[in-house]
């Protein structure tokens, strides 16, 4: 038996590296962070995530560390308001980029089913190859329809590549969930009257500031949490949903998150 065989074939080596998610022990003190890194790395390997996605992930991890890598009560309040907004919407759309596709493909499909939202791929660095790779990845995880490939509409105020959307997707949406959105695009969607739910670990990012509902949490925890709240609110009527939405105070949530980060009560592990 030649135990040096894994290093003889570079492709085989990559395959072995990307198959290790199940090998990360669940009781590892940094389990979630290791899984997250692994998924992003795998996303880059398979062409779903851009190399810049690695940098975005690193920036997010720093904030998550200071939040104790847990969903805070303010983030949970925001997730409930997000669920109400999605259920109340006429035409909700979930926008998916490379990091989101790599991190939470199944959770996105589940949320879309519960709140009856469209899923649309929307990329900062748009290439047809990556758009198709992400759409295929979402279909592999159970999506029925993935929008974003028609590219027949434009959000005003953005250059062509970054403003391109589907007319019957984000173009027609009244509420858009934009996890990990770039600040310019979040502001441009806001300017055309779309109500935005942003998931971003940085409460001071331009996207979090532009959001109707900012959820200051890791997308890995936030997306299933919105689904859980949506399932609980599914039978609520429009009056009850409107009450949840109107009671939500975005400034207060951003402020509470910032204070939690500044206090930085780190996990002991
Ligand atoms: P903005 O343009 O909105 O001011 P930015 O330029 O910092 O923000 P990017 O670098 O494009 O934005 O994206 C990184 C953002 O995504 C950071 O704010 C980071 O905190 C956040 N982020 C990265 N990974 C995650 C994650 N897994 N969950 C939630 N947020 C994340």
UniProtKB/TrEMBL annotation:
Name under which the protein is recorded: 4-phosphopantoate--beta-alanine ligase
HAMAP family: PPS
UniProt family annotation: Belongs to the archaeal phosphopantothenate synthetase family.
Binding residue positions for ATP: 37, 59, 200-202, 206-207, 218-219
Keywords, comma-separated and alphabetical: ATP-binding, Coenzyme A biosynthesis, Ligase, Nucleotide-binding
Nucleotide-binding listed as a keyword: yes
Residue stretches in coiled coil: none
Pfam families recorded: PPS_PS
Pathway(s) of this molecule: Cofactor biosynthesis; coenzyme A biosynthesis
The keyword Nucleotide-binding appears for this protein: yes
Enzyme class: ligase
EC annotation from Swiss-Prot or TrEMBL: 6.3.2.36
A molecular function GO annotation: acid-amino acid ligase activity
Highest taxon, organism lineage: Archaea
Catalytic reaction equation(s): (R)-4-phosphopantoate + beta-alanine + ATP = (R)-4'-phosphopantothenate + AMP + diphosphate + H(+)
Biological function: Catalyzes the condensation of (R)-4-phosphopantoate and beta-alanine to 4'-phosphopantothenate in the CoA biosynthesis pathway.
Region of interest (Disordered), ranges: 1-32
Subunit and interaction comment: Homodimer.
One of the protein's GO biological processes: coenzyme A biosynthetic process
